[in-house]
Amino acid sequence: MKENPLHHFELxxxxxxxxxxxxxxxxxxxxxxxxxxxxxxxxxxxxxxxxVRLVPTKLQSVAEMALLFLRGLVDExxxxxxRKFFPFVASLFFFILSCNVIGLFPGSYTLTSQLVVxxxxxxxxxxxxxxxxxxRHGLRFFGILLPAGIPKxxxxxxxxxxxxxxxxxxxxxxVRLFANMxxxxxxxxxxFGMTLSLPWFIGVLxxxxxxxxxxxxxMVAFIQAYIFTTLTCFYIGDVIKMH
Amino acid sequence: xxxxxxxxxxLGLAFRLGTEMVxxxxxxxxxxxxxxxxxxxxxWGILAGVIFGGAAGCLRxxxxxxxxxxxxxxxxxxxTPNGEGL
Lengths: 243, 86
Hints:
The complex is a heterodimer.
Chain A: E1 13-15, E2 18-19, E3 22-23, E4 26-27, H1 28-50, H2 58-77, H3 86-102, H4 115-137, H5 155-197, H6 200-241
Helix pairs in contact in A: 1-3, 2-3, 2-6, 3-6, 4-5, 4-6, 5-6
Chain B: H1 6-39, H2 44-74
């Protein structure tokens, strides 16, 4: 049996839907996205339903720790007076985290291993930062392309470099999350393929590795969600403060 | 879920810097390629794109590193690093 290690990233329509000539068929990724949303929503609703207590339950203290940590990020990178970005940042973090973690369960699907998903997040964040920047600073926002205190002779050289580095922000956000998730799951698939195709006394070795790498992937799932949110905060803070 | 720990931040940084340079160079190349395609200036656009993209990538990594340096020198928690991407 030949098994392609990239096979499990392919998405096929499960429910065929057609809306006025536009193909909106549902596939596994969309269902997993709903599961992710439901999981985050359900967790916070469960905490609310149990009642927020002074002496927190286990679930409540985990949620409180995570939210305090995220509020710290917003305060540090965007500013204490800009707490209105906190709900957006927190939703982003929990959604990406849940998508990453759901993908680790066998048989499910890693939504964040699709460049179109991470790309949509990154593009949305990029457009949002541009809107905030132009809204706050007007045309002075173009000043972000000129770092403070550079000699006049370097200006024609610096502007293309700064434009490229500005445009690289959404791309690096999207590619980092996508690449890390895809790479991890490909390694798992390759190792598992080796386990199945080798005789059992050798195959037990790659099987052990799959377990170890699964643990590593759990850490990567957290770290990637953390990096994505940190950078989002940083980019929003950067256009508000303008260097 | 001790997310603010040093290990987590260090790993985050390590995961970030690698992609940063590659992606920035790629953007430069893509922009150069687009300029070539639309203005018929093949090979010059892509050449300039590689150089500018590489320069931008180095600059981004340099700024992140410098931001860390400043952070470590001051050695206190309330100092926000001013590096790119941190």
